Amino acid sequence: MPTSADGLRDYVAWHDAYDDPQSSLSWRLSIVRSWIERVLDEYSSPVRVLSVCAGDGRDVLGALALRPDVADVAVTMLEIDPVLAARARQQSADLHPRIRVDVRVADAGDPAAYSGAVPADIVLLVGIFGNISDADLARTIAAAPAMCRAGGTVLWSRGRHGGDRTDEIRRCFLAAGFAEIGLDTLDRDGHPTVGAMRFSDETKPMPTHRLFTFLR
Q1: What is the arithmetic mean of pLDDT over 18-40?
Q2: What is the mean pLDDT of residues 132-144?
Q3: Is there a contact between 35 and 196 (Cβ–Cβ < 8 Å)?
Q4: How many CA atoms are closer than 13 Å to the CA of 164, on its beta-carbon side?
Q5: pLDDT in tens, 61-118
Q6: pLDDT at 66
Q7: Residue 148 in 3-state DSSP?
Q8: CA-CA distance, 59 to 139, in Å (whole number)?
Q9: Are 120 and 152 a contacting pair, CB within 8 Å?
């Protein structure tokens, strides 16, 4: 996989794998979209959605494009790559006017990036946990209660190839006040997992320390 100038994975090129319907990314996209559609109707209008490290936003925006009947939705997308952020803005232009999208070119590891976007009803922590240290993973999950309204849903993902952290992630969410409502796995091509958690506690203040730093 090509790397960018900062030595990390070239995430613009990485998105090309979505074009392969047999890829694990396509599988993950389908699962995440189905969860978004499933939980949208559980919340009263307006619904607030937060996508962390959002990429080009095809999961959230794709799900919302299939729901012309959806109530008022406010989406905040945090994406550090300006090319991917521009793609997300372009996709959002075709959505219903009741869907308001704020695409921020921002470092999602910085708590300041979340100002005015939290707490949310639906939070996506997808495509993050496999690219950060175990300490940052635990730190990010511990901050999830600041991202969610009471009763909110978090969707997360991580591959199991090269080290399965699934049970550890689930335990961290349970300790942070979440209950598991779903877990989907694919036993090939990186062995990805998508989890769905429901926040059953009270929203906490956003921490001031850095949440995570990508390692690849």
Answers
A1: 92
A2: 97
A3: yes
A4: 8
A5: 999 998 878 879 999 999 999 999 999 999 999 898 889 999 999 999 999 999 999 9
A6: 87
A7: strand
A8: 24
A9: yes
Token pair, residue 156, equals: 């997360």
Q: Which helix (H) or strand (E) holds 207?
A: none
Rounded CA separation 123/198 (Å): 10
Segments in the chain forming alpha helices (H): 11-14, 24-40, 58-65, 82-92, 134-147, 166-175
Task: Find all residues with CB under 8 Å of 160, minimum gap 6, and list them.
Answer: 166, 185, 190, 191, 192, 193
- Residue 196 near residue 38, CB atoms below 8 Å: no
Q: What is the DSSP string of 75-102?
A: EEEEES-HHHHHHHHHHHTTS-TTEEEE
Tally the C-alpha atoms within 13 A of residue 92's C-alpha that lie toward its C-beta.
Answer: 23
Question: Could you give the 3-state DSSP secondary structure of residue 16?
Answer: helix
Residues 60, 75 contacting (CB under 8 angstroms): yes
pTM: 0.94
Omega of the bond leading into 119 within 30 degrees of 0 (cis): yes
**What are the tens digits of pLDDT across the range 116-136?**
999 999 999 999 999 999 999
Which two three-digit tokens encode residue 95? 């959505």
Residue 168 has pLDDT above 90, yes or no: yes
